Amino acid sequence: MIAVVDYKAGNLTSVMKSLRAVGANPTSTDDPATVHRADKIILPGVGHFAATKFLEDQGLKAAIRRKIAAGVPFLGICVGLQWLFAGSTEAPGCSGLAAFPETCDRFAPGRKIPHVGWNSLSIRPGARLFAGISNNSFVYFTHAYRAPVTTATVAVTDYGEPFSAAVEHGNIMGVQFHPEKSGETGLRLLRNFLEWEPC
Amino acid sequence: MLTKRIIACLDVKAGRVVKGVQFVDLIDAGDPAEVAARHAAAGADEIVFLDITATHEARGTLIPTVKRTAQQLFIPFTVGGGIRTADEASAVFDAGADKISINSAALAHPEVIGEIGAKFGAQAVIVAIDARRAGPSSPIEAAQVFVSGGRKPTGRHAIEWAKEAEDRGAGEILLTSMDADGTRAGFDCELTAAVSTAVQIPVIASGGAGNAQHFTQVFREGKADAALAASIFHFGIADVRSLKEELRRDGIPVRLPC
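Predict the joint structure of the above. Result:
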């Protein structure tokens, strides 16, 4: 069962629709017990980092942490990627999952913020999410905060400064862009996540 | 590198795509779901669905048509026209929109910008501004904002209203020059540049697209982050793919379809 975690941060319609388009039968849920039964977990998101507080309040954070520890594949999208880090300066009192120790921060002034539109990916060879996706492919972004480039980064995008467009570490994956809004490239990425089996 | 976006706009009346000249004299241009899917396949970066008569006729957006159109799309999809409250916006998001565009309601009740943003994120709120200059020699700062599909003057100035919309939490500005709209004689680059440099959020230029050169001008001189057009695509003067190929030859960064 593919669980799409609903934490009331915007609508899930697009993510659910894209997953169905690549042949999945996703379940949207805000119930930790349902998350506990999932074979794969997707945490979408758009908007403010503070919305992730709902995950903690509802017991979803603990449920996701247990599943990740058990090796279940996890994909965070947009704020869902940022939540994998220790936190974000967007909501200083709100901690992330801290799978990665760094903190997310706002783009420096001097450019249009938010970063909105189709930007290209510099993809690290061997990245599992990007199997069959050419280097420099374009995907759709909309965000004002970004994660730094770290050892877990598998795709870098440049918007006046380089940032993490995608991260992978074991069964934990995240993308800053919106695969559900990135045409064929995004659908391929979702398919890669769905088809990926932990060894 | 962040590319310049080409946005295909569907002006929808009574469930059909239409196109007029300077907001009047409408002609039929097809079914919204079919037209949207065709533009997406040709490489449109986004689709905007504007229910152009909703506010005027004081009725809600065409939810079933929005839902049917969203079903075809895996690129960003914006819906505008007749959205007055955060609850009405919710219904449009539930139907599959990624962003909503508000115009008349934002001017009447500016706090609605923040209300929708609080629930769906600032990136989901586009404030649409329809502006008309007082005359060719009148200063750009005097360009006035109109509402209700271009029918009612508001007495507000476009640049000042764009700044307020940004302060209130708009994620993008969709700026339509009513003088240029439907003429196919080029965007109002001067007005677009004035608004684009006054705010930090992205500005989508609209009104007047007739050929590829006009897009190059509005990206360079108009400092637009995106440009929107309707009629040139509907009537086969250019499709998005050939437009983007021409823009790339001009040195404008664009995403070419596969």
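The mean pLDDT of chain A is 95.
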